[in-house]
Each structure stands twice: as structure tokens, then as C-alpha cells.
Specification:
The protein is an alpha/beta fold. Helices cover 46% and strands 15% of the residues. The radius of gyration is 24 Å and the shape is globular. The relative contact order is 0.14.
Length: 464
Amino acid sequence: MRSTPRLALINGLIAGFVAQLITIGWIGHVTIAGTLVLCAYLSLYWGVFSLWLCFFNRNHDSLFTGPNIRLALSGAAVWVTGEWIQSKLIGGFPWNLIGSALHEELSFIQVADLFGVYGVSFLVMVMNITFVLTFQRFNREIGSRKIRPHFDFTFAVLLFCLSFSYGIRRLLNREPVEHTIRIATIQPNISQNLKWSEESAQDIFKIYSGLTEAAMYTKPDLIVWPETATPYAYLDIRTTDVLNNLRKHEVPMLVGTFDVEDDVWYNAAAFLPSSNAPAEFYRKIKLVPFGEYVPLGKYFPYLRSLIPFTTEMVPGIAQPVFTLNDSKVTFATLICFEDAFATLSRRAALGKARFLINLTNDAWYEKSSGARQHAANAVFRCVETRRPMVRCTNTGFTCWIDERGAVRETFQPFIRGFPVPFKVELRRIISETFYTRHGDVFVLFCVILFIFDSGIRYGTRNKL
């Protein structure tokens, strides 16, 4: 806080870039240049946060409770505002928001059904800022031998206790189970080196067909293939022949594939009802930056060389809700990192989907932390909407997550096969969660707090 604004900005940018490179460096398995650009972009939020702390709090005195509480709340509001902008700007990249660090602490994350993951991020930042201020205060008080109560620390602990109490209440008071759906998830563990090879296409179809035929004997209610499972687009005769042969078993299937219309390519999911009804499609809405498309590629065409495909994907628009024939249970699909976007799961919940299915392919990133980070982000979509989620991966973290955010059943990564069908429990929904109904109103509170407090600080600063 004694630094100059320029130095604070530089330090924030460096810290952010290093932190992002350590955290998401595994994207380099797909594109090294794209990873560096993405890390540089994400570091901007760290730089701006550091600049704000220095510019508005350069003369902050940590000996007083009131100013410390104010700094903790306004600083957390600034951070959350940055996370929200990161989730929206240029398509959005809401990956590893700081609240997701608590994904295994179920009692602390239940407040996400009120405030979303941003509420958890807010709590984490309030605690972190308060810890720093408390350390500074102790350091100064020990030197003066005048140790006083630290009510700012007490305030931060109180917020965490309130969050914990709410979480315990939500964990203990659960609605009864209305339906149990048996879902077989196919995990073929196909290497990316083979996935797009013309010579391997028939072998890939044989792997999927064999695993699916075996899964049929477990009598599931639904069989799921992961993202872009088919080597060819859905309407290609080589794909439809294989799928039509499997549909004779009269078990509904959800298949990750490509959909092509007028030479426009979509990353899609095809839902095949158990009857001969036509397939229903979901086209991926949120595309991976520098993976499926190039942000601002229209203005900087040379950046297109950073993506691994010769053809960029095009985003879909609609988010349909599918219905299982016999049970009349509804579900919605998320593809790849779409389970990091709260807006999509919220839209699905408002569309009356009873559960979510995520199709993904984490084989891109080999044996890195990418797959576990992906699942950690997905946990919050379940808590926010109180919907369970089934995750089906080519290889990665194949599992199902219940409405509390607890990972219930998993299938070991980097092996080929399918787990015994997940018994997904669908609990009675009396009313939608506050977050589902109202969205990011808490973020609006943070934006107002950030602007209001910054305005006051700026006016005070100019008078000094």
C-alpha cells in the first residue's frame, strides 16, 4: 500500500500472469501462444485490483477497526466486479474464480444458491484482506506494546460463521427423492493424436459401439457419449449408420458430435430418443477462446493461426430442454467448459430442466490439473440451481455431482470403459433458488459498493 500506482500496477500484472500461467498452463497442450495471450489478458484484472488498492488506500491506517472493515468490503467488491467482467467480456472466461477454491468445503459454498460463486469469492476476499490488515496491525501494536481487540477480524469471522451456519442448515434439510435415473456414461479414453485421424475413424466407432452394446445390458435410462465423440459430423452417413444400429436397443442416447449447416460448423450434442423419432440438437453456445475460435479474430486475422482447427466453430443460440421418453424427466446439456458459466445452468433451470449433463473432452490437456479444475468449477452450478449434474468425458473427471455440490460417484480417468450406471437422485423442487430467480443481483451490489466507495475515496484524496 506504500507503493506508487505505477509500480502497483506492474506488480499486479506480473503476479497475475505468473498465477494464471501456473494455474492454466496446461492449455499449452493445445496452443502455447494462445495460452500466453490468455494469461496476459487475465492478468489485467490482477493489475487493476492492485492499482485500485494503491491509488485509493495508499495512506490507509490499519490500526482502526472501521477503516479496515470498509477496506475489506470494498476491496472484495472490486475483486468480485472484476470476476464478473471476466465472465462476460469477449465471450467470457469464468474459470477458477477465487470462490472455486472452496469447492470441497460444502458447508461454506451453500450460499451460492443465494449469491452464486461470486458470493463465495466475496467471502474469501474479505477474509484474505482482513488477514493482511490484522497482520499489519499486530506488527505495529507489538512494537508499541498496546494490543487491542481486533473487531475487524471478528467481523470477517462472523461473516464466515453465518455462511457456515447457512450451509449446515441447507445440508441437513434436503427434499425427498422423487426420481432416480440410471445413466451410463461412455469413457473411451481416445488419444487426441488418434481422435481426428481418418485412419482411426472406424476403430473409434468400434470402441464406442462395443462399449455402448455392453452398457445396454445394465439397463440404463440413458446412455451418454462425450463431447465430439463421432469422428464425422452427425449427418455423415458413416455416423448415422452406426447410431441407427445402436438405436435398435430402444435406449435413449445423448451423443457429442458436430452439426454442420450450410458449411457452418457447430460443436453439438444430439439427443436420440428411444423410438425412431428424429434427433434433437443442442449447439454449444460458449466457445473456448483460442481453442474453438479466436477472440477479435475478425479484426486481427493473423491470430487465427493460434487455434488447433482450420475451421472455427460458430456458437449456437438456443438451449433446448430434452425429455426422457418414459420418465418424462427433463434435462439440459452443457458442452466442454460451459459448466463454468452460471448463466447457462441458470437458463436451463428456468427452462424446467431437472438435471444437467456436461459432455467434455479433457484429453486435450493430458495428465494435468485441467480435468479436476473443470470438475471443481462445475460444482457451483449444482449448488446455484440445486440441480445434479452428470459429467461424461472422453477421459477426465467422469462423475455425477448432487444438488449440494458433492461428487457422488466417479470413474477413474485415463482408462477405457463405463461405470456401473450412475444412480442420479432427482429431489423435489418446491421453488427455484434465489440465484436461479434473480441471477447476479449480488454482483450489482458489489458494483454499486465499488463505485460509491471509490467515489468517496477519490473525493477525500483530492482534499488531502
